[in-house]
Specification:
This protein is an alpha/beta fold and 251 residues long. The chain has one domain: Purple Acid Phosphatase, chain A, domain 2 (4-Layer Sandwich), CATH 3.60.21. The protein contains eight helices and twelve strands. The protein starts with a strand and ends with a helix. The structure holds zinc ion (ZN).
Length: 251
Amino acid sequence: MVKRALISDIHANLESLEAVLEDIRQQGVEEIYCLGDIVGYGPNPVECVDLVRRHCRKTIMGNHDQGALFDPEGFNAVAEQAIFWTRDQLERPVGSSQQMAERWDFLGELPLRIEEDGVLYVHGSPRNPLNEYVFPDDIYNPKKLERLFSLFPRLCFHGHTHVPGVFTPRPEFFSPEDVEYEFPLGQEKLMVNVGSVGQPRDGDARACYVILEEDRIRFRRVEYPVEKTIEKIYAIPELDNSLGDRLRLGH
Ligand code: ZN
C-alpha cells in the first residue's frame, strides 16, 4: 500500500494548507487525497483550489464546495455570506479566464465518494456523503453507527465535523490524543475522521490531517501562522470576524 495523506476541510486557509503540504513532503508521503471543503469560511479560495488541483491525486466534493457551485442550502447566515463571497472570488479570472474556467470545471466534476481497495472516502458519512455529520457523541446512538458501519467494506475516511478521531464498531470513539496520534489497522472495521486542515474544532488550533500506512494510521498536527490568516479574514467585510477568532481557539 502506498503511503497516502488524507486532508479535508481546508476552507480556503492558505497558510494552513501550505504548512500541511510541507509537512506531507517531509513525511515522505507518495500521494494525497482530499476529502472536500476546499473553500468556504476562509480568505484564499482561489489559491487553495489551485494547490489542491496541483497536489492531490484525488479529491471529493464537500458541502461548501457544492454551495459555492450551486445555491447554498442549509447553511447559517455567516457561512452563507462566506459562500457568496467565495463564489465571487472564483468568478474572477485570477491568472486567466481559461484558468478560471478550469477551476469551475474541477469543482463541478468532483465525485461524492470514492471506493477502492476496501476503503471508502467521503466528506460527510457513508450514508449521506455530502451532508451527514458523524460526531463523537454518536457512539451513544449505536443504531446510527451500526448502519454507517454496514455501508463500507473495511475502512472509511471522512471529514465534515472538523473533529478528528477513530470510530470503532463497538462503538467507541478515540481522539488523536487518546491514542497518541497513532491507531493500528487490523481486521476490525474503522471510520476515521481526518480532522480539518483549515478550521480545526477540537480545541487544538493546529492544522490536522492523517497519514494512511500499511498497518496503521497517524494523525499529524501542524503549526501554521494563524494570525496571518485571521488578519486576512478581519480585512474582508463579507467574512465575519468570528471566522477568524475561532481559528485562534481551534473550535
Ligand atoms: Zn467543512
